[in-house]
Write a structure and sequence with these properties.
Shape: globular
Radius of gyration: 22 Å
Number of helices: 19
Strand content: 15-25%
CATH class of the largest domain: Alpha Beta
Distance between the termini: 47 Å
CATH topology of the largest domain: TIM Barrel
Structural class: alpha/beta
Number of strands: 19
CATH architecture of the largest domain: Alpha-Beta Barrel
Largest sheet: 7 strands, mixed
Mean pLDDT: 93
Number of domains: 2
Strand order of the largest sheet: 2-1-3-4-5-6-7
């Protein structure tokens, strides 16, 4: 069986801030690389089209399908990307009678809604896709009924039916290394601290999240119990990326990279013992790091670390169940700065219970967080599958949902809810103000111009200026 995977356009979800996002570079579709690798080791052929990175439109997709003649087409989508995935599927369905499969976060958190709105999709994969997709493809090849394939939602005439849930994959070591060779790797670049612009790839070492942040759907997608890849397999994949693909920068996409301190230490020691020369970054929580750990991580190649700050108001942090204090946040940034590790932070404005006063506390908090050199100011968005979404439907904390149209669900420049004295216009204005307050300080201007060389600095600053003043 021949499978075509399509990574639908996603950069447009940044709205007016799209130039800044494009300057940052494209994100390689790690999930599709993982699925493709699993299908290939089980006897299938696979191809990936990344529409944004390759600059392809629907006409190009039609030509690709004519040339490749796939037996199955798979499209992956988060909630904000789902409208573009749905449009892409509808255009394909007009030309071809090929089974269309939707996978990813959105169909997992809202399966019936996804199939109801995405009428061109024949099948939807709920949760982890590897085994479900393989079984579906095998059943389709035999011409049998799909009703025994676990983790599936599908059409039966006018009806939409769901099969039995599929358990999470417990042995992540049983999965092959994602096949990144199916991508044009030169299209994925990043401004690397002190290195200039270089190729980048993503990598994941675990699945699952034990935390309860109301705004996140990771628990719905991956489960609440963390499943770990072995250190040996992690190091094996790093060596493959660095030595065989010649990519010298890896961004780890684990929700909390330092969740298990002893394991992080083991990985870092393994990198040093094997003399793997590369740089890397990751995301984590401020209360899971200490100086000794970060010192070892830097020695093993860490150059940038991102922390989720979310709010500068202690009461709002409690309301959203972040589980981190502002003192822990300040401490983490001070340690990283002391060790020369570049730091990034992210906040959201417009949480339930927020007011203009609490938003300004957040904006002043990140402005005064002098050890943080890069920050994202997001507008809180109630994505389906999150506790936040249910809170907003009930109107908790003074929230008012403005639309359920997912094409409007963008964290940048387009609020889909209001809260207390914060109108849609207020949130849009405060987001722009937040970026200006944070980045337009002398030390951050100089740092971000110089951090990765003049070419990267000019590219990133130009994207920022276009976004702020367009």
């Amino acid at each position: 069986m021949r499978i075509l995977f399509i990574y639908a356009p996603w950069v447009q979800i940044y709205g007016r801030y799209e130039p800044a996002r494009r300057a940052h570079g494209f994100d390689p579709p790690l999930g599709l690389c993982a699925l493709a690798a699993f299908m290939k080791v089980n006897g299938c052929e696979a191809k990936i089209i990344d529409m944004d990175a390759e600059g392809k439109n629907i006409g190009d997709i039609i030509q690709e399908i004519n040339q490749y003649s796939p037996d199955v087409i798979g499209i992956s989508a988060t909630s904000p990307v789902f409208p573009m995935a749905k449009l892409t599927a509808s255009k394909i369905k007009e030309k071809f009678n090929i089974p269309l499969v939707i996978g990813g976060v959105h169909v997992t958190v809202a399966p019936e809604e996804a199939m109801r709105e995405g009428k061109s999709f024949d099948y939807g994969i709920i949760g982890e896709g590897e085994i479900t997709l393989l079984e579906l493809v095998e059943v389709l090849a035999r011409g049998d009924s799909v009703n025994r394939v676990k983790g599936l939602i599908y059409r039966d005439g006018e009806n939409v039916l769901r099969t039995e849930p599929r358990p999470y994959i417990q042995d992540l070591d049983s999965l092959p290394i994602p096949d990144r060779t199916l991508l044009d790797l030169d299209r994925y670049t990043f401004s690397i601290p002190k290195k200039g612009i270089g190729r980048i790839t993503f990598m994941m070492t675990n699945r699952g999240c034990p935390f309860q942040c109301v705004f996140c759907s990771a628990r719905t997608m991956w489960g609440t119990r963390v499943r770990w890849r072995s250190v040996e397999k992690v190091l094996e994949e790093i060596e493959h990326i660095v030595n065989e693909l010649h990519i010298k920068y890896i961004s780890f996409t684990d929700d909390t990279l330092t969740l298990k301190r002893s394991r992080m230490i083991e990985i870092c020691n393994g990198i040093l013992e094997r003399n793997i020369r590369f740089n890397w970054e990751g995301m984590t929580r401020a209360n899971t790091v200490d100086e000794e750990l970060l010192k070892l991580m830097k020695k093993a190649g860490l150059v940038r670390l991102s922390f989720g700050i979310e709010s500068g108001d202690p009461e709002i942090l409690k309301k959203i169940k972040k589980g981190v204090t502002l003192e822990e946040v300040k401490r983490a940034y001070k340690i990283a700065y002391k060790l020369g590790i570049e730091t990034r932070g992210s906040v959201m404005i417009g949480h339930p219970y927020e007011t203009k006063r609490t938003v300004m506390k957040t904006l002043w908090f990140i402005r005064n967080l002098k050890e943080c050199m890069q920050a994202y100011v997001n507008i809180t968005t109630p994505f389906p599958g999150t506790e936040l979404y249910e809170m907003v439907l009930r109107g908790d904390g003074g929230t008012r949902l403005l639309t359920k149209d997912l094409s409007q669900y963008r964290r940048y420049g387009n609020p889909v809810m209001e809260v207390n004295d914060l109108t849609k216009e207020d949130l849009t204005r405060l987001q722009r103000l937040g970026f200006i307050m944070f980045f337009l300080t002398f030390r951050r201007i100089i740092y971000n111009l110089k951090r990765a060389g003049i070419l990267a600095g000019v590219r990133n600053v130009a994207g920022f200026i276009k976004s702020i003043w367009r």
